[in-house]
Amino acid sequence: MTERIEGHGGELALAALRAYGVREMFTLSGGHVFPLYDAAHKTDFPIYDVRHEQSAVFAAEAVAKLQRRPGLAVLTAGPGVTNGISGLTSAFFNASPVLVLGGRAPQFRWGSGSLQEMDHLPLVAPVTKHAETVFSADDIPRAVAAALTTALTPHRGPVFLDFPLEAVFSVGDAELPAGPQLSPLEADPDEVARAAALIAGAARPVIIAGSDVWTGEAVDELRAAAEALTVPVFTNGMGRGALPPEHPLAFAKARRVALSNADVVVVIGTPLDFRLSFGDFGEAQVVHIVDAPSQRAGHVQPAAAPAGDLRGILAALAEHAGDRVDHDDWVAQLRTAEDAAKARDAEEMAAETDPIRPARIYGELRKVLARDAVTIGDGGDFVSYAGRYLEPAQPGTWLDPGPYGCLGTGMGYAMGARVTHPDRQVCVLMGDGAAGFSLMDVESLARQKLPVVIVVGNNGIWGLEKHPMRAMYGYDVAADLQPELRYDQVVGALGGAGETVAKAAELGPALQRAFDAGVPYLVNVLTDPADAYPRSSNLA
Fold it and tell me: In this model, does residue 485 exceed pLDDT 70?
């Protein structure tokens, strides 16, 4: 028998949210959304508030990424919503099932100039899977349920609803939604068989696995497929850690050698974008495995492109019964390259230099980070080193801005990670440029007793802009920051603690103090501004 619920708009929304597994709200206070707060307060539904709306959306996205279920941000009308659009856009590029509920000026006065009156939908529609204004309290549960179903349906992504003032404050009644009822999308079996045959018959195949392998709960199936076909695996995004670093088929350092010599490149659960040379791997054939037909690349003609439930596709690859080429020599060749690269990295991570090189920071972090630590990257140059030197041991422990490349995720992601994992280490790796976007939200973390460790690579410049601009023009502009700025003192003033480190030998003890502190703690590491991450540009 269908259950009916009655209450004001906030109570109706919260009942539907609970049915879909939402367990917390991230917000910045605003009068347009008071009924949502009232419903949460009266039922002990946790509310976490921030100092900038972007952090609320990023926190909701971190929950969505880490827990593979909807994350919720509640934003007041007008500037509350517009301040959250960068977060929505990041969630869109990252396929994160985030629901943003926005306040809205009253409909009965629309056009009269009410406070913060604007139509949000034209702004948010391009960066959401669904955007809707709900004009009646009775319709709120239906709209919330439909939006969340859309957010959770592969290919996943954010959704947006806003409620005019009179709708969310009014009393209504409606049927209680039953919760998510999603059916796996079955891939074309002929396309899956074609992919399996290509991989099994290749002399030098390579797998690159991305975030959708984690989101689609296909980690075990990825391992089974790689092991059954004996294919080396590289990962990016939240796919990192899908195979632990000690697994014989897990690789991280030999990617250039692998992609330069592969005859089949299998890209699973990640787009063929600038991070993967736009899918151009020379003479190699490309197999692109995605969770929905919409994710097939339009700029590349793959040899096979199965689209559907990743668990089913990867399980079918593991069960391939046809002929298989022996890949042991290929795996051994890559292992030799991997080991040589690891040896070079070990030297760099132990370097005793003055000023400190970023590699040494990551060498010291590797000594204190637990296997289940959640590591968050928020920056450009400094975080580029993290991708090279840190190797997550478990899936679902790495958060970075993703292909949209939006800075400012750090404090919001940290909040969402700490809420998700109250007993794990949470470490934010932040460039000093990125610190300018969200560091004020340390106050939110401190006030709500959400301790995290923040490591700032402080070189006093925008590293990924200064050096390329000088190479192109012989000069640079708008690329300098204050050298040796005391970001640790900022955190101390906001209720946390921290220290500045200028000598490599001081790094290890400082990091240990940070993880033992029990408050937001910032380790401000003065690094060499001449030491920029060496990589070519893939902007075009």
Answer: yes
